[in-house]
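Example (one chain per record):
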Amino acid sequence: MPRAPILLVTSLLLTTLVVAAAPAQAPIPEQRIRPGVTVSGVDVGNLTLAEAQLRLEQTLGPILAGDVVVTAAGKRFALRMKDIGFSFRADNTALRALHAGQAAPPAADGTLPPASATPSVAYRRKPVWRFVRAAAKRVGKAPRNATIRITLRKLIKRSGRQGRAIAVAPLVAAIQATLANPLAPRQLAPAVRIVRPRVKRKDLARAYPVVLTIDRAHFTLRLFKRLRQVRHYGVAVGQPAYPTPTGLFSISSKQVNPTWTAPNSPWAGELAGQSISGSDPTNPLKARWMGIADGVGIHGTGEPWTIGTRASHGCIRMRVPDVIRLYRHVPVGTPVLIR
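Predicted structure:
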């Protein structure tokens, strides 16, 4: 046999003998969480990561998968975990426990201080906000201001009503804290805040300092101040062909010695579309004007004998001394009931 092949065979045999003679290496031991480490009260000390993951899935998993229930104002709202894509990462939680133990080394005397880790969870934030906003909307009730019911002869007080509301952001924060804490109660009862009306019954006199009512059937204008009738005046109202409108209005404008712009109506005759100054004796609007709506208003008249009749083309006529006196008491925005 040639020398080279003999040497190669000899070398292979020697290598095989060396490998066979070497002792087998021991497997690397799996990492264990050091003693004294807990996750939300569950002891995972001395466990491998796989063992800790299994224990956490069995103990904390069912708790964290439960609904979070919100109760407020006698209403109940359940946040289901599947609706927010909730997941409990037991594997990540086991790693957290391992690192928590490593971060708390033994004391000088060799004792091990307790260490703990929090569960690793994931979920979508937007559905949580939507859930809370929907619950707040159903619980919430807008306050109702005190007001008055205006009749021709008296003003009747109507009490307001308290509202209620729950704060959205604090409830979202409470739910998020619950989702990551198996020890937290899954039943939440957020504070319901009372919302008081801006205008209370005791504020009504200040809120309605002046009110006017016009009784067409009895040709009477009544002035109320601080919810009490203080004066009444005789008036003329619209003819049957041009009736004074009815309803609840308000004083929209005021003028002294107003200019009159004649409407484009057959009754205006040759004056239709023309403007007549306040100093012109042909101007039917005498002394004062308090506009109501659609060209209708309260004004003085140069025909005082028409008071107590249906004589106007929709406006409310008053004697000149009366309209001057009334004008001083009636600001723009004053409610006017016409019936």
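Caption: Residues 209-338 form a domain with the L,D-transpeptidase catalytic domain-like fold (CATH 2.40.440.10).
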